[in-house]
């Protein structure tokens, strides 16, 4: 009985240190979102990317849970982003129509849809694979979408997370 009690005491003293850290997610998410949004707006076709930022909060919650190993709630995502955005699942933020004469897609209200595809932390470095979508107006009769894929790196130095690199992997 005494050894069982000692084991529980040992487990209780070690358990908090072994819990996965979620603070990094809340600290780095807004940096990733801002970097992706800024890139999308600066590279959008003329007249595009002027509308609202759009994020899928449920998807970010799932991604955060997978990346941290602990449940990340919708409220945690909302608090972490802390900037103005429109909550929009991909299927609502990016609209498409099609008929026998062709297919057209666009981002609602000429906004910027940001989708974080992957988020990996290694020590004091976080790398995010991000896709941004804006409306492309090459053909006046048929708008399309411009998808940009970025690799965004955030690093912690002296206890502060900072954007260190944004690399373009693919563009429209």
Total of DSSP H or I helical runs spanning 4+ residues: 5
Question: How far do the termini sit from each other?
Answer: 67 Å
Mean pLDDT: 87
Helix content: 25-40%
Strand residue content: 35-45%
DSSP summary, beta strand count:
8
What would you say this structure looks like, in words?
With 172 residues, this protein is α/β, with parallel strands linked by helices. The chain is 36% helix and 41% strand. The chain has one domain (20-170). The chain has helices spanning 2-18, 23-43, 57-68, 74-81, 90-93, and strands spanning 53-55, 86-87, 94-99, 102-107, 112-122, 125-139, 142-157, 160-170. The strands form two sheets. It has a six-stranded mixed β-sheet with strand order 2-1-5-6-7-8. A two-stranded antiparallel ribbon has the order 3-4. Helix 2 crosses helix 4 (74-81) and helix 3 crosses helix 4 (74-81). It is elongated and about 55 Å long. Mean pLDDT is 87; it is low at 4-19.
Please specify the SSE layout and strand pairing.
Elements: H1 2-18, H2 23-43, E1 53-55, H3 57-68, H4 74-81, E2 86-87, H5 90-93, E3 94-99, E4 102-107, E5 112-122, E6 125-139, E7 142-157, E8 160-170
Parallel strand pairs: 1-2, 1-5
Antiparallel strand pairs: 3-4, 5-6, 6-7, 7-8
Helix pairs in contact: 2-4, 3-4
């Amino acid at each position: 009985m005494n050894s069982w009690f000692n084991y529980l005491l040992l487990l209780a003293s070690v358990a908090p240190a072994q819990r996965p850290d979620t603070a990094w997610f809340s600290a780095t998410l807004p940096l990733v979102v801002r970097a992706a949004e800024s890139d999308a707006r600066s590279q959008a076709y003329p007249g595009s990317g002027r509308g609202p930022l759009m994020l899928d909060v449920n998807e970010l919650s799932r991604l955060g849970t997978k990346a941290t190993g602990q449940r990340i709630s919708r409220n945690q995502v909302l608090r972490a982003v802390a900037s103005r955005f429109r909550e929009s699942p991909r299927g609502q933020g990016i609209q498409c129509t099609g008929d026998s004469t062709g297919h057209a897609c666009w981002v609602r209200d000429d906004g910027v849809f940001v989708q974080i595809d992957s988020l990996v932390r290694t020590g004091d470095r976080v790398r995010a694979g991000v896709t941004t979508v804006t409306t492309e107006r090459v053909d006046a009769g048929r708008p399309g979408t411009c998808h940009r894929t970025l690799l965004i790196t955030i690093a912690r130095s002296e206890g502060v997370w900072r954007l260190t690199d944004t690399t373009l992997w693919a563009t429209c």
